[in-house]
Write a structure and sequence with these properties.
alpha+beta; Phosphorylase Kinase, domain 1; Transferase(Phosphotransferase), domain 1; 3 domains; 4-stranded antiparallel β-sheet; 9 helices; 41 strands; about 40% strand; elongated
Length: about 600
């Protein structure tokens, strides 16, 4: 084996204490070996820092004799991870984790499904102008976000732009990315460039600015339209002309030729200074942080007026949907998903503040604003039975096997009560409110979420605190176990959704900046897809493998309060406060 040959990790190799498993190597370029890997049931991409000249021993430890090269490359690799970690944008590849192991460092990213523009170019494919401009516009939006944060990409080329099957265009390889707001970070520093896509200032080690990326993007667009690369900047400075784009690709308009020529100006002062000015030449508007990529949508199945002053709470079981309103104190039963009214009952003289359905679907419990908990038949026939009274609870839930209920309270308390307990058990679980309680499917553990921004697990045999999960920065609004009991999902007023692996006692997905306070969340029948409801009336569908929202739709004109998802079908009901229709069912099967 050559001293300089890079040996990838073998398929099946575990990393990070078994959290990740290598499946196959998919690329070896620059400083890294890139792998397709798995994180439990989710596919991920892992980049291993492994520059040329390194060797791997029998224990997978990475060694090198060129320590200076290794240190410089190591810094570049960590800079890439740091740059990517700053952003949550559909046009920038998402970093999921970074860790050190085997004497090197690994970056875990979303696994993209599609091809680079460079792959199409290698097959002799030329894009038409009307196909390229929407893709370039997406990349421009991502660059605007980077430039707004004081960073330039500095290595734009077809191989670093990935066209996903879902329509997204994503920037790759941030290894040369650097800041332009400080003199020290703004120069090339000998860290490499891509001939044909780098402007003269990059060759000369001069200060880099957003205009550097204008040149790289213009060169990339020119190349995929022409089917041939732009001559490198030193050659152009010696008089080598640009190819005749209109002859190479008749679909290109004169306006686009002129806009690309402006972006490829060798003289920095004559080039558009930023992406917005560059896209103005195409007649395209570019606003910082805008999202050109259009997320997929759900379809409305039925909208129904349900309760006076809005629908506050929902429960679903085996083709029956239960709802209760804000002030009318009425519980209604609906067919699912048609929302045909089947029955109704007024259990309390006050509004209902919590509602829960037994796992077998036979019984319903409701808690009034006065704190009275009543048990009634799920067909809403016959009298209700008062079973507990304490104070109004924020959430009720049934034990999965026993006749026991758990309740959460605004004062931070939790309570267990029911026929199988000689007397109710109460304890303080959180500082501030306890907003949510949920039983593990095995019935041995209770999860609580509170206003102190923590998620806690309690052993129901000993009532000892088993674990405390920290990560949210503001109060939690909901926490629930997955149907298989392997994970937890938590929603918070910090606009963040977190997905926790119980075997590792840590958050493996953090979905940030969902636009508003999260009101509720739910698992879907697809284990890779979860739902969240925001205070801005938005229903979000989040892909866990990539940690990105796939769907965002406004469900109501007024506040949305709760959601419940069908465990078998991709159908979700959302309750809100619209006066004209406050209960809606959406089909998200196209996601």
């Amino acid at each position: 084996m050559s001293q300089h040959e890079r040996t990838p990790l073998a398929p099946g190799t575990p990393l990070h204490q078994g959290r990740y498993t290598i499946q196959s190597a998919i690329a070896m370029a620059g400083f890294a070996i890139t792998y397709k890997a798995s994180e439990g049931r989710f596919p991920v991409c892992i980049k291993e820092f492994f520059p040329r000249g390194c060797q791997r021993d029998a224990d997978n430890q990475v060694h090198t004799q060129d320590q200076a090269l290794y240190r410089n490359g190591f810094k570049s690799f960590l800079d890439e991870a740091a740059a990517l970690s700053r952003f949550r944008h559909p046009g920038i590849v998402l970093v999921l984790n970074t860790f050190e192991e085997n004497g090197t460092v690994y970056i875990v990213e979303e696994l993209l499904d599609g091809v680079t523009l460079g792959a199409g170019l290698s097959l002799g494919v030329k894009l038409r102008e009307h196909d390229l401009l929407p893709l370039a516009h997406q990349i421009g939006q991502a660059l605007l976000m980077m430039h707004g944060a004081g960073l330039v990409h500095a290595d734009l080329k077809p191989d670093n732009i990935f066209h996903c099957r879902d329509g997204r265009c994503v920037l790759l390889d941030f290894g040369l990315t650097r800041g332009f707001l400080s003199r020290e970070q703004a120069t090339q520093g000998g860290r490499g460039l891509s001939p044909g896509y780098a402007p003269p200032e990059q060759y000369k080690g001069q200060t880099l600015t957003p205009a550097t990326d204008v040149y790289g993007l213009a060169a990339t667009m020119f190349t995929v339209l022409a089917g041939t690369k732009v001559p490198d900047a030193p050659s152009r400075l010696q008089g080598t002309p640009l190819p005749e784009l209109e002859i190479l690709n008749p679909s290109v308009s004169s306006r686009t030729v002129q806009a690309l020529a402006a972006g490829l100006e060798l003289e920095l002062r004559q080039r558009p200074p930023g992406i917005s000015e560059f896209f103005a030449g195409f007649g395209l508007e570019a606003l910082p942080k805008g999202q050109v990529f259009k997320a997929r949508q759900a379809s409305l199945v039925r909208r129904q007026r349900a309760h006076q002053a809005g629908t506050q709470l929902l429960c679903l079981h085996a083709g029956r949907l239960y709802s209760t309103g804000g002030i009318d104190g009425c519980i209604r039963l609906w067919s699912w998903p048609e929302l045909e009214p089947l029955s109704q009952v007024v259990v309390h003289p006050e509004p209902v503040v919590s509602l829960a359905l037994s796992p077998d679907g036979k019984f319903l419990v409701s808690c009034s604003k006065a704190g009275e908990v009543h048990l009634l038949s799920s067909d809403l026939q016959g009298p209700s039975m008062p079973i507990y009274s304490h104070r109004p609870c924020t959430r009720l839930t049934f034990h999965p096997q026993r006749a026991i209920l758990a309740a959460a309270y605004l004062g931070g308390e939790c309570a267990l009560f029911g026929p199988e307990l000689p007397e109710p058990l109460r304890w303080t679980a959180h500082q501030g409110a306890t907003s949510s309680v949920d039983f593990h499917p095995n019935g041995h553990v209770l999860a609580t979420a509170g206003g102190d921004a923590t998620l806690k697990l309690w052993d129901l045999a000993s009532f000892e605190l088993v674990a405390t999960f920290k990560g949210h920065t503001k109060s939690l609004t909901r926490a629930l176990f997955s149907p298989d009991g392997a994970t937890l999902l938590s929603a918070s007023s910090d606009q963040t959704l977190r997905y926790w692996e119980l075997s590792q006692l840590e958050s493996v997905r953090e979905i940030k900046n969902l636009g508003a306070v999260l009101i509720d969340c739910a698992y879907s029948p697809d284990p890779n897809l979860v739902l969240a409801l925001t205070g801005s009336r938005q229903l979000k569908a989040v892909e866990l493998a990539g940690g990105r929202p796939l769907m965002s739709l406004e469900t109501h004109a007024d506040w949305a309060k709760s959601l419940v998802c069908d465990p078998l079908l991709k159908l979700v009901a959302v309750g809100g406060q619209d006066p004209s229709g406050d209960l809606a069912v959406w089909d998200f099967s196209e996601l």
